[in-house]
Structure formats: C-alpha cells, structure tokens
Amino acid sequence: MNHVIELMKSHRSVRKFSDRQIPRELLLELIRAGQGAATSSHVQAYSVIHVTDPANRETIAELAGGQGYIASCADFLVFCADMKRPTEASERTGANVVRGMTEQLLVASVDTALMAQNVATAAESEGLGICYIGGIRNNPQAISDLLRLPKHVYPVFGMCLGYPAHDPDVKPRLPVEAILKEDYYADDREHVEAYDATMQAYYQTRKGGLKDSTWSQNLAPLFDTKLRPHMREFLVKRGFEMK
C-alpha cells in the first residue's frame, strides 16, 4: 500500500493542539492543494474564511456548541458554499442567470466538501491535525453575520488546524463489504451488526470501560429528533431556494 493511501486511512480528529504556529506559506499551500480537488464543470463554488480575530473565534466556538478547540487551534477555517462568484461572473458576460436552483446548492456543497477534504489530506501529510466543525450549522445565521457572508454564500463547516498535542486512535470504519455493493444494492445488516460489535469493543478499550455503546446506538440522537430544522429556511434566505 502506498504512503498516500496509508495516510488517508489513518485520519483521526484532533482536538488538542500545541502552541506551534503554522507558517503562512504552508497554509497557502494547503489552500492551493484544496483547489486541486475535482469541481463540477470547473465552477469552483467555494470560498474559505480564515478566522484570525481571537474574539470572533471565541464567538464561533460558543455558537458551534462550546467547542473550545476552535479558539485554541493554530488556524481556523470556515468553508463556504459560494454561488455568488460564479453566477455574477456569468452575469457579467450577458447571461440571463437563473438563481436558487436545488442543483446549484448541491454543486456548491459538494465542491466545498471536496475542496476541504483535499486541504485536510494535505495538512495531515505535513504532520498537522485537523477537526471538522459541523457545529457551525447550529447557528448559521449568526456565523454568516459575523463573517459578513453575502447572499448566495453559506457556511458548510469549519476546520481546526494545528500541530497535535495528543495522539488519538483511528476510529474503525464500516467493513468495506457494507459500503461496496456489486451491481445492485444488497442488504448489509449482518455487516452492520458485526461493526457494532467492533465499535463496542473499541469504546470499551478507548474509554477504559466507561462507554458501552455501538455505532447504531450512537446514531439515535441524529435521527430520533429533527436535526437542525432551521437549515432549510436559512438556506432559502441565503438565496438557495431549492427550486
């Protein structure tokens, strides 16, 4: 297995960072690596906000659910789906631009995720740790206001970057047999049940017996309530009307 594949399989979320700073040129190289990701029709429908103001970082940490490592990491980025730039560029050529289509929301969101994952892999190749912050969607309007995001731009997630101050274990993933299906969609319950046993053993080891749970049980809070029900109204107000 080559070193790139090994690196990609070794990802873990890092939430404790040293005081060591990331050189500015390295940060720029990480963003350039992000730009190398695949992008739908070369639209490049993303922008990245590098949040350096300590007060803003503290505010975002609270808005994201009290995640203090947003304030303590070396650098914090907010990855935004951006349909403002490409639609306005098209409009300047004389095109009669149609905005608010669901496909535009999907393109911008997927472009942003692909770009961010390239940044994450590049960062880890340089010995950095990263942690995605989906919690910024807890209060997306407040964060949009704080970052002065214009219409047709929305914050998808944040990312903490820094040199790790701890060495967390790699969390087991689902068996590849559950994910890769040949020719048609096949039932994967037996693989999920086996994975639940794997995760239960993992938590027992990692938490010193203090956590007795499975993957399926951990999903319950995500699906037995309406998770972030404000997102649809927020996206419509942002100009992503999902027409």
Describe the 3D structure.
Helix 2 (24-35) crosses helix 6. The longest helix has 24 residues, at 102-125. This protein has a four-stranded antiparallel β-sheet, with helices on both faces. The chain is an alpha+beta fold and 243 residues long. It has eleven helices and four strands; from the N terminus they run ααβααβααβαβαααα. The chain has helices at residues 3-9, 24-35, 54-63, 69-72, 84-92, 102-125, 140-146, 176-179, 189-206, 215-223, 231-237; strands spanning 46-51, 75-82, 129-133, 153-162. The chain folds into two domains: 3-170 and 225-237, NADH Oxidase (3-Layer(aba) Sandwich), CATH 3.40.109; 171-212, no CATH class. The chain starts with a helix and ends in a 6-residue tail after the last helix. Helices cover 46% and strands 12% of the residues.
What characteristics describe this protein?
single chain; 243 residues; alpha+beta; NADH Oxidase; four-stranded antiparallel sheet; 11 helices; 4 strands; 46% helix; globular; oxidoreductase activity
